[in-house]
């Protein structure tokens, strides 16, 4: 049964998808960069999560649609934004960035920032990454991290 909230989420995602010009990231490469940093300090590798990939894509699309790097979203806080994509977790974090041209350069930028580095090296199990290009060709990046599970069968959000 659809609720008003899930219907609004569906409309929001569709509108953002129409407005945004697609950009590409290589999720496997990006995950290997993240896991290499984690291995350097003895942490377990993260797993690529289709739930967080979809959630991160919506956040990147939103940022590029408003031409602003932001953690804010009309969908709510980070827990509220990831839950409709099938994420069940007790811990979640997000890194956003703007203007970097590729996976390696944005990772370098995040690793040079203590707050972003803390997220990359945090006590998480799941990972998602996305990028979106605005009408000027500028890239908006999102990394999302969670400690929990991903079940796309429980998703109330449309597939990206």
Mean pLDDT: 86
Query: Unreliable segments (pLDDT under 50, ≥5 consecutive)?
Result: 10-22
- Percent of sequence in beta strands: 15-25%
Q: Based on the structure, what is the oligomeric state of the protein chains?
A: single chain
- Structural class of the helices, strands and pairings? alpha+beta
Termini separation (Å)? Answer: 20 Å
**Main beta-sheet annotation:** 5 strands, mixed
Note the run of SSEs as H and E: HEHEHHEHHEE
Please work out how many helical segments DSSP would assign.
Answer: 6
Total beta strands = 5
Shape: globular
Radius of gyration: 15 Å
Describe, in plain words, how this protein is organized in 3D.
This protein is of the alpha+beta class and 160 residues long. It is built from 6 helices and 5 strands; from the N terminus they run αβαβααβααββ. It has helices at 4-19, 27-40, 50-66, 78-82, 103-111, 114-120, and strands at residues 21-22, 47-48, 87-98, 126-133, 139-150. Strand 4 (126-133) and strand 5 (139-150) form a beta hairpin. It is globular and about 40 Å long.
